[in-house]
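A common beginner's mistake is to predict each chain separately and then try to dock the pieces by hand. The better habit, illustrated here, is to supply every component at once so that their relative placement is modeled jointly.
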Amino acid sequence: MHLVYPVVIAALLFAVGMYGVLARRNAILVLMSVELMLNAVNLNLVVFDMRWADRLHGGQVLTLFVIVLAAAEVGIGLALVLLIYRNRRTVDVDRLRALAEGDPDPDLDVGAMTDDEGTRR
Amino acid sequence: MIVVAAVAVVLPFAAAFVGMLFGHTASHLLSPLARRLRAPKPGTARRGALVLARRMPANGPALIAVLPVAASTVLTAVLAADQLRSPGTHVGTLTRIPTGTVPIALSLHVDGLASVVAFLVCCVALAVQVYSVAYMRDDPRYSSYAAFVSLFTAAMLLVVLSGDLLVLYAGWEVMGICSYFLIGHYWHDRATSRAAVKAFLVTRLGDVGFLFGIFVLGMAAHSFELRVVLGRLPLMSHTALLAGTLLLLCGVAGKSAQFPLHTWLPDAMAGPTPISALIHAATMVAAGVYVVARLYPAFWFAPTSLAVLGVIAAISMLGAALAALAQDDLKRVLAYSTISQLAYMAAGLAVGTRDGAVFHLLAHGAFKALLFLGAGCVIVTVGSNMMSAMGGLRLAMPVTFWSMTVGFAALAGIPPASGFFSKDTILSQAWQATHRTRSPAFHSYAYTPVRRLGPVHPPRGNGVVDSEGYSFALRHIVHGAPPAIPSWVAWLVLVTGLATAVVTAAYATRTWLVTFFGEKRSDFRPREAAPLMSWPVAVLAVPSLLLGFVGPFSERLRPEWGMAVVSLLCAAAGAGGVYLVWNNDPALDPVRLLGPLRPVLRAAFYVDTAYDVAIVRPVRALARLVVRADARIVDAGVEGSGRGARRLGGLLRATENGNAQAYVSGLFAGMVLIVIAVVVLT
Amino acid sequence: MILVAMLAVPLLGALGMLVPLPGSPRRVTRLARLYGLAVSGLTLVLSVAAAVAFHYGRRGPQLGVNVTWAGSIGLRFHLGVDGISLPLVVLTAALTFLCMVYTARVLPAPAGSRGGSPQSLIGLVLLLEVGMLGTFVALDLLLFFVFFEVVLIPMYFVIADWGGSGGKDAGTRARAAANKFILYTLLGSGFLLVGILIVAVNAGTLDMTALAARHGAGLSHGLQVAAFGLLALGFAVKTPMWPLHTWLPDAHTEAPTVGSVLLAGVLLKMGTYGFVRIAVPMAPDGAKFWAPWLGFLAVIGIVYGALACLAQRDLKRMIAYSSIGHMGFVLLGIATLTPVGLNAALFGNIAHGLITGLLFFIAGAVKERYATGDLDALGGGMLAKAPYLASILTFASVASLGLPGLAGFWGEMLALLGAYQPHAGLPRETFVTFMAAGGIGAVLTAAYFLRMLSKVTHGPVAERWRDTRFADVMPHELLAWTPLITATLFIGLWPKTLLALTDGAVRLLLGGR
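With all components supplied together, the output reads:
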């Protein structure tokens, strides 16, 4: 079989995964899309390992690494999603914006940016 | 002699210092001594001594004020006597101050003019100090008042005896601030406070021009020393001379209350009467005339400035005399009269007689001080400044009445009082100036450059070698004959002089009649003023009467009988006219005949209002505009830069929206670009 | 060595204040005050000793020390005093000592809930003193810059933590004013640093005396123009020069008394000192290029400051704007690039330090008694209510408006004289116009001071104050103010003291004649 077929499939899988990461709103779906991307990479690695067939079989070894890391990552990721759901009753990524800055107010007095307790106004 | 002069200047200064700081302490220290002297000891002291001891005040400030001025009077008398005996110039330099360019010399310069004027200043100051002991007896702030009068005396003596133009300027300004403090003595009245501020600001405006004039003359002469400047006059360019003298005239107009800087003097009458006598009659206002007399050779070489002076004098002369005619406040009459008489002196200088102007200065000092101090006596008795409240004082206040009669006679120019002779000198010189195309040779004693010794470093001490290497010798020089002032100026001076003589006699007679004659117009107890007040007035009547006789006996001041007769006729016309009107109805004010003109004259042709509208209000509006512009424009730039920085930051912050997917998109886009770049570029 | 000691004593003193003091808060406050008095007194003694040890005939820097600090960049720890810096050093030490005398009885109240202890105030003032003294004695460009910057942080904290002009917003406004002050001055310092580096890199040395002796040799004309422009920008913010002045009124109004006195009395001098010591000698072509502009902005500052004062309602703000006017005269003197102009600038510096320091002390005293600085609220009649205080206020105002016989006159007069005949390469007519405008400014100066005196000291006592009683001048105030009054009188009556001192050094800086 020519290399092209699996590489294209991997690319397609990666693209689908990328789309999912960037465009899906549900956090669990984002995690699943990340899995898709990782598996696309795995496919690529295995295919090229078969192509190059070096003594250490680096591609397949790396694939095993990736599988383990993906598993670990999805474990923690799902745990986080669970906690977020418990606290915020939602897993909509668009609504999880706690890292954003507030509206910048140009007339805010520079000297009074924080009040005495240090909380931001 | 220089030491004498220096001590004469320093004594009142020290008195001011001590009086300001230790006035009350001195009273406390002296009171036990006075008490012991007052306690009668049987059969010990002579009767006269007891009387004197009983009268000696435990008034510390008074002693601190009077004794040093008395000592200075004696010292300046010594100076004047010495000058009479052997006329000449003495100059002494204490030290030279390096400035980076022309050095300033702390020096004193004593000659005939200086010593005579210094003596006048000290006499009037002594009279005022003695008078004030009684006049200000109940005033709690007497000690600071006396201290300021001493400081003023020291400053005026510095102006008169100074040998360096910048030292003269220092004394000039100190006089101005003392005038502010003294006019503002009754500071709890806001109008008085305003009058004091006005006096200082108007004179300061003139003083700025004065300072610039000193710069011009000093830099052109490469020295600020008086004798060097006068000696170098032939070497200066005409532009420098003209600019310098014209700028000096600004200061003269300010201090001597000539148009257009005259508006402060009538309002300054809000101060205590002795101050009006000292400052606004005899000394400070005379300082301007004195400076022109002192630097007369410079003006002589720049006749345009003398012409300007003549025009200013003519306007002030007649305008002030007309204003004096319409006043109701006795002190304001005398104030406008001062402006008018000073204009006479200025006119004398303009037409070419320095000696006549100085003669009138001395005479005016005596009779105006007399008039003011006498007015003080009258005001204390009547309890009001307004002439509409006076009358019927002729028999009740004999000393004051006869002294003031002499004073008014001198003012009006009626012989044999001094004013007649001094005015005549000026008017006759004006007549001569009208038909003369070139000035007569002007005689003076001056230091003139002899030879150049080569480059030298700044000289030490008194040396007659200046910093440019010229050595000086005292010579009697005859200045060449530069063109005289234009004859139209001389005609203007002559005609206004005669017209003013008419009006002067008129208002002098009117004031005399309304104040002393007729029935008393308000409720007061007519009695003579306290001896400490009336005796200085009487003493001043002596020079007012007799000083004029110096005229016929002196070569340069001899009266010209033709002009004398004309001026006498003018005076008689003015006085006679007023007397006739008054005689018709002694109860009414003769000036009522002016009718609708009276308010205009009383407000001195509304010059004050014009200044308020044209200068004071726009400056205040400009000040408010500046404050607003500072907050809204200049500061807005600063605050705006801060806001702009935050807005820029806000723009960049827009990417930090908390959405993780946006971050990843950015990452991905960047990665794609890098990959493309790598692929394309390799 | 004496200069090193003079710098080390306040520095160690400031560090000493880090040690916590035992005892009740009252005891701690008293100990801190005495400590501050002792340390600043010792510094004053050292500076006077330096003045005594100074050889008045010699023209170059003396009493110095010159050791390597960072050899790789050519930075040396080079200190020295000459006729220009000696009066400023003594003035700084004296003013700091007088501030400590004043603090011995009156401690500024901390603003807002965040505030400092007396210990930190004393420590900060001592640190400020190190910076101020160091600026005047440093003879190495980067060392000068370091000390120049050192003063900013303590002053920021003094204004922010102890300042405030009363009212419920006091703390916020104080912090805002302090922020404005420090950011604005730091901006200027940025330009200053670039200018310094241009000069130093192109000339190859950081030593101020060597650079001054070269009179710009080795720097091309364009480089000198650029360097002077940047240096001038940096110093102009500090001076302050119009239009870079807007930090000053806010900083002065919000600062506590000791802060205002030191800010007006010393910090403003650092800008003009920098002009005289660094900008003019090291880039003379640049100076000649920029001088007309400098003069123009200086004269605008004089007239603008005077007009702004005329319409002010707050006493301290008025004195702040008057500082802008006086510094305008100093700048005008510098812009003439003549010995008389620079003498005028240096004289004006000292005079302004003494007189405006005194004025701010008095303004602080007035504020304590009346609890307000608003001229209309003060009402008038202070001569009846507190005669000695009013008399001293009158004396200080009269000195500030430039009366001959008091210190303020000579600086102004000599600046105008310098403008009448500026350096040969400068347009004379322009400078004569500046002189005329400066004269008008002098009249306006008199106007606003007399207006203030009329409003505050004259007239009847206002209704609201008629029943309050407060003390006239108190002993510790008199103790703090008498040296300033005496110095003003002495220097005014005998200006030769200062002029003889600065004249030689100035001529050396300008190219020796």
